[in-house]
Amino acid sequence: MKSINPLAPVKCSKTIQINANTEKIWLVLTNIDHWADWQPDISKPKLNGPLAPSATFDWTTGGAKIHSRIHTLDPFMHFGWTGKSYGMNAIHNWKLIDMHDHTLVAVEESLDGFLAHLFKRRMNKNLATGMQNWLELLKSECEKQN
């Protein structure tokens, strides 16, 4: 898995416990074309071809259009991508940890680039809020399908 940039001015990591198995969470998380069905902050997600390492996808979140490339696709365990938007570079990683009766989901992201340096404080706060929201929406989506 590609590591987030430890020197990036904007970075965050969070975890959540989801009462669903890793397979169910994996299917929701990697179904990129349907992210907007359960994640209202995302619009127009489109995987360009089959889900595979190096595949690209385009999506919009928070008004920013992002072009991403999958760097890690380790079924039921790790899913990660890089993304570019407005001169910023992101590295985003998901980790699913099977705890037998539930799954621990960990997510981390780093953002680097001119705007990330310029608006470091605000972007760190927005990333932390957005990441927590994404985790809670993922939990809700996966647990309602149980």
Major sheet strand order: 1-7-6-5-4-3-2
Helix content: 25-40%
Structural class: alpha+beta
The arrangement of helices and strands along the chain is: EHHEEEEEEHH
Uncertain runs: none
* Main beta-sheet strand count, sense and barrel state: 7 strands, antiparallel
Portion in strands = 35-45%
Global Rg = 15 Å
- Helix count from the secondary structure assignment: 4
Instruction: Compute the average pLDDT.
Output: 96
Termini gap: 29 Å
Number of strands: 7
Query: What sort of overall outline do the alpha carbons produce when their principal axes are compared?
Result: globular
Structure at a glance:
By secondary structure, this protein is α+β, with helices and mostly antiparallel strands. The protein has helices spanning 22-30, 35-38, 114-118, 120-144; strands at residues 10-18, 42-48, 56-61, 64-74, 78-85, 88-98, 103-113. It contains four helices and seven strands.
Describe this entry's structure for a reader.
The chain is of the alpha+beta class and 146 residues long. It is 29% helix and 43% strand. The protein is built from four helices and seven strands. It has helices at 22-30, 35-38, 114-118, 120-144; strands at 10-18, 42-48, 56-61, 64-74, 78-85, 88-98, 103-113. It has a seven-stranded antiparallel sheet with strand order 1-7-6-5-4-3-2. Strand 5 and strand 6 (88-98) form a beta hairpin. Helix 1 (22-30) packs across helix 4 (120-144). The model has no long low-confidence stretch (mean pLDDT 96).
